[in-house]
Amino acid sequence: MENKIYLQAQRYCWALLVLILPITSFPPVAKMIGSGTTVAAPSALVLLILVIGWLLPYLINGGSLPQQSLPLIVFAVAALAMTALSFFLHIPPYKENSTLRNQMEALLTLGIGISFFLLTASWAQQEERTVFTLRLLNWSGLVMLLWCLVQAAAWYSLNRYPLWLRTIHEWYSVGPLFRQRVSGFALEPSWLAHQLNMLYLPLWLSFSARRYSVHKFRLLGLSFENVLLIGGALALFLTLSRVGLLAFLLMLTYLLFRAGIHLKNWFTKRASDKWSLLAKRSSLPITALIYALLILILIAATLGMAYGLSRFDPRMAKLFQIDLARDNALLYYANQLTFASRLVYWQAGWQIFSEHPWTGVGLGNAGFFMTQKISGYGWSLMEIRELVYRTPSLLNIKSLWVRLLAETGMIGFILFVSWLYVLWRCATNLNQHTYPLYRGMGLFGIFVLLGLLIEGFSVDSFAMPYAWFSLGLLTAAHERGWSFGRLEV
């Protein structure tokens, strides 16, 4: 009886964790950790309960972590060691910020991210749990998309947000609503784009491409994932997140070129003997023609998206106005698109890395060096002057990849990328599985990793759970896939 209650409690906690994933900055959690601008996801509290109540007992009773977690654990140990070594560096003071506090916060956020990965990779290995999780993600995603629709409808019909909508928004977020941009349940639109690209859209795109669904019902012949994909793509566009749209475009590009390969194979197999012989003799021109057509489609889609943004997003109004005669032409052009500050942050982070190339300056320490590395052009930007002179907070690098280089050096960067490479191999292997569910999960993993490649230039926090959760699902599916059915590798 006690064991049954324990299993039910465990399942309910997991369901709660999945359902509240879209909420990123819950006011009670933000108040608890004493910050209104960082990740304050309520799912982290449920994560703590599951780690203590399930993951630790699971490991103590003989359970094992997936082999794919080994490079990540090595990276975590290396990051901890490099942070300890930073005590021998001269870290310049910055206002009243505590070096030790920032280091502890950085290590804590890394621990939260790794815990999301390890818990998901271990708990979801059973097929029934995987399907249960995917169904929950779809339903929570539907609620998120409907709320995005409400936000968009309110703004574009009234040109403002009514009081009742603002009141509801304050229940679940410490941040404001944004003009002309939907944010769902996230702190800001770019965070919504991040969670869409790191979890929901890869899931819906992969299962739509595989023509597989974890639900039996259909709506006008469309699966639940088909409908959610359409809504998710629309919500992503309404965030007006440039990096988010590029990440999704990369996923579509991969899918497009995979379709090109299938089209070439279909042409070769379905042609008559006469045409088959002709195809063999002219395989290079046919292949070149197919890929030239795909490239043209991709260019047209990219230009169409860029033109649409230039007409729809005020920040992109000068997208096609490039003045190469100016000094710092690239930074000036980026400033015209309100993107220059990001380039300045990345450049400053790169300067930190160039001075500490092997071990970096330790997790949480890059912000103390940032003001010393900002370029002369950077000081002309209003955003940077506002942050430096009118706020007590440290500057952020705003890029996961540059942050890894600056804070963990080449050693940490290589270890982290090695872990991602292991997961890429898992995803490509799983993509060849004979069972539709695991084939879909393999393609899902590929999309997540491709999206992370671009999203890593926008988000630098380890505490955002979406990539960790998705890669945990991929790992769990791969572990189960090896023991179920057959992998065609």
What does this structure look like?
The chain has 19 helices and no strands. The longest helix has 32 residues, at 127-158. The chain has a domain at 256-312. With 489 residues, it is an all-alpha fold.
Q: What is shown here, in short?
A:
With about 500 residues, the protein is mostly helical. The protein has helices at about 1-20, 25-35, 45-60, 70-85, 100-125, 125-160, 165-170, 190-210, 225-240, 240-270, 275-280, 285-310, 330-335, 340-355, 365-375, 380-390, 400-430, 435-455, 465-485.
Count the strands? 0
Based on CA atoms alone, the radius of gyration comes out at 24 Å
Q: What's the order of the H and E elements?
A: HHHHHHHHHHHHHHHHHHH
Mean pLDDT, to the nearest integer, reads: 87
Which key terms come to mind for this protein?
single chain; 489 residues; mainly alpha; 19 helices; 70% helix; globular
How is the secondary structure organized here?
Blueprint: H1 2-19, H2 27-33, H3 43-60, H4 70-85, H5 99-123, H6 127-158, H7 163-172, H8 189-209, H9 224-239, H10 242-270, H11 273-281, H12 283-312, H13 329-336, H14 340-355, H15 366-373, H16 382-390, H17 400-430, H18 436-455, H19 465-483
